């Protein structure tokens, strides 16, 4: 998984350097003020040996020090006519201890396959919902089946759930752009390869929906952009 | 799935009296079948037993029991499967096992991508779980009509999907209060052919005779509340105090009183209600908080409501909202309101500023 993200990152960097000084960088922070939702736990109701007694509710993963929010997806629209460099063709989702890893990821340009790994040795089912909340597919993955490969739905916001363990949930965001960022545990992000001028930077988060902000990009420079969350 | 679950399944097969003679010579073609040759079919009762045995192994390997119960083992997500063959045709089951989502869009049951041979084996196993229903004996007995209905209800294992008191499952509507909310005449229409009333419903047509329908309806009509109300209150209180969620407690109240029986799952699809004004339907509760103020919602739930007639000289609509005021205890109404307020497109608490 990680390796694929790094690969994707390398592709991004290459694209950025290819156009040299023509592009700029946007760095920033996504997080709460003093007021933020407390961490929650979800009760595990079965398969305790593998799943434990509780799992963290990953809707809002907040760093207690910076109040930064993890797992927000940041991206921007490519200029008219520009072709996105293809990212990895396969999106990998692992089931570990009755959680999904990663909880949020992006299917970039060119991604068409969802590969699901089962390292738990128990039955999970991979119930994939499309934008409208309808079932796109729902396949069983019994304990002995370590890997299944299926087509990704042609949707923008894909939710994966397991009906055996109803607390399990993961998100896959499909972008026509393989350049994007996902906020880290401290809520920070860094976008590279933006064309100079005014750019509309967009953000999505499972508990907040989407929003956007304009930022002025200067070639060869780092602009900052913060998203603040409140009630 | 762990191995301790294998044993009860195997003992079920033994109990069905079919493993004992496995070592005897099987019929012609059995060797092919045993070797898994495509198209080969079991040629004798002994081979049927092998088929069933293989089916039971699939149930274990694929962990069906993490959602279903067979015998006294298993989970509560899906129906109890013991009496499956008394309610579903083989043709229906083949369609179901091929891809459940084609039969019931959105179902939690996943597609296991079974091969045709595996489907045969599974059906071979589940057919053996079936117990005969002594319909004639029950109908001819001395008991009252409602008592006969109760025995039929148990024999068909209607609790495979339904709930009464603290027994059963939530795949179908909780029937604890069904006698209070539905008329006997409607029960008969429904039981005779559920699809005729509601096309596409998951409630099976079990092929009841007129006598059986009458007895079952008479029994259902006696279900007008709980003998042991404490069990429900305990259940909703646990969710409220231990689970810390008024919404979950309210949802349990909604399920346990069978509001779903008229307003639809999650209040999303009101049942049809011939000649009821304005639309001949029970109203959806989806988004009701945007239509009615909370006081009006509370009043309807406490006191009930009888819909007007679309055609004043036509018949009375079969369904009206029962008055629940005297039955709801403690915080149950408050929790119910909290739940009903969530029946609307999700409003986000936290927003980008
Ligand atoms: Cu699972």
Task: Write up what this structure looks like.
The complex is a heterodimer of chains A (231) and B (353). Chain A is mainly β and 231 residues long. Chain A folds into 2 domains: 22-83 and 178-231, Sandwich (Immunoglobulin-like); 85-176, Immunoglobulin-like. Chain A contains 2 helices and 18 strands. In chain A, a hairpin with a 7-residue loop joins strand 12 and strand 13 (169-174). The longest helix of chain A is centred in the N-terminal third of the chain and has 17 residues, at 2-18. Residues 6-11 and 13-20 of chain A have low confidence and may be disordered. Chain B is an all-alpha fold. Chain B folds into 3 domains: 3-129, Cytochrome Bc1 Complex, Chain D, domain 2; 135-221, Orthogonal Bundle (Cytochrome Bc1 Complex, Chain D, domain 2), CATH 1.10.760; 244-340, Orthogonal Bundle (Cytochrome Bc1 Complex, Chain D, domain 2), CATH 1.10.760. Chain B contains 18 helices and 5 strands. Chain B has a two-stranded antiparallel sheet. In chain B, strands 3-4 form a two-stranded antiparallel ribbon. In chain B, a hairpin with a 2-residue loop joins strand 3 and strand 4 (167-168). The radius of gyration of chain B is 24 Å and the shape is globular. Residues 14-31 and 33-37 of chain B have low confidence and may be disordered. Classes of the chains: A mainly beta (231), B mainly alpha (353). Chain A binds chain B through residues 32, 37, 43, 46-47, 60, 122-123, 125-127, 134-135, 137-140, 142-144, 163-164, 203, 207-209, 211, 227-231, and chain B through 1, 61-63, 66-67, 75, 77, 100-101, 105-113, 243, 348-353. Strand 18 of chain A pairs antiparallel with strand 5 (351-352) of chain B. The structure holds copper (II) ion (CU). Copper (II) ion binds next to loops of chain A.
